[in-house]
């Protein structure tokens, strides 16, 4: 497949121009509010710690993923192509779903 620039699509920003485009500007808000959620969830008392653990996992994972993605954009690791982000994170998400399903099945069978 041809790169996005050659096929008429837009290219991804790199460097600090990430902070000047609208969708990528949302990284800043995701980073700030994600950190606040992480802090608030960790400091709250809930009746079932398992629920807090799951919310904490999702919050920390999203915070780390956002941080990783913004750092990759800033250092220009994408090379200006748009398909690598979807491809890398799609495979990671699918792999995590499969691993979770397999271990859940093993736990269910052993109980």
What key phrases describe this protein's structure?
single chain, transmembrane helix, 3 helices, disordered N terminus, 111 residues, mainly alpha
Give a short summary of the structure.
With 111 residues, the protein is mostly helical. The protein has one domain (22-110).
Q: Strand content of the residues, in percent?
A: under 5%
State the order of secondary-structure elements, H for helix, E for strand.
HHH
Number of domains: 1
Helix content: 55-70%
Q: C-alpha Rg, in Å? A: 18 Å
DSSP strand count? 0
Structural write-up:
This protein is mainly α and 111 residues long. It has one domain. Helix 1 runs antiparallel to helix 2. The radius of gyration is 18 Å and the shape is flat. Keywords: Lipoprotein, Membrane, Transmembrane, Transmembrane helix.
Topology:
Elements: H1 22-43, H2 49-75, H3 83-110
Helix pairs in contact: 1-2
GO molecular function: structural constituent of myelin sheath
Keywords: Lipoprotein, Membrane, Transmembrane, Transmembrane helix
Subcellular location: Membrane
